[in-house]
From TrEMBL:
Domain of life: Bacteria
Taxonomy of the source species: Bacteria, Bacillati, Actinomycetota, Actinomycetes, Kitasatosporales
Region (Disordered): 65-88
Name listed for the protein in its UniProt record: Uncharacterized protein
Organism: Streptomyces lateritius
Length: 88
């Protein structure tokens, strides 16, 4: 069985973000930037292979803040828009 088949998807409007870094400080710095752009839930951290850190957090893409709000508004596809020709 494919392990991805059992993965539970986050609720609509949310995204799971996984950060892998050599140090916990680096992973937390990236998570902090994401929290400035999106509302988010509590982060979870785990050891990564090779002594690094793996950090997981859930962000709410419908509750964007600051620069993400304007970027999200302009990046959403218009109704009926399909993939670019080169994406087929």
């Amino acid at each position: 069985m494919d392990p991805h088949e059992t993965e539970i998807l986050p609720p609509a409007g949310h995204a799971e973000v996984r950060i892998v870094a050599a140090s916990p400080e680096t992973a937390r710095a990236v998570a902090e930037v994401l929290r400035h752009c999106f509302a988010g839930a509590e982060q979870r951290s785990y050891p990564a292979p090779g002594g690094g850190t793996r950090l997981h957090l859930t962000v709410d893409t419908e509750t964007a803040a600051g620069p993400a709000r304007s970027w999200l508004a302009t990046s959403r596809p218009s109704t009926g828009a399909g993939p670019h020709v080169e994406e087929h």
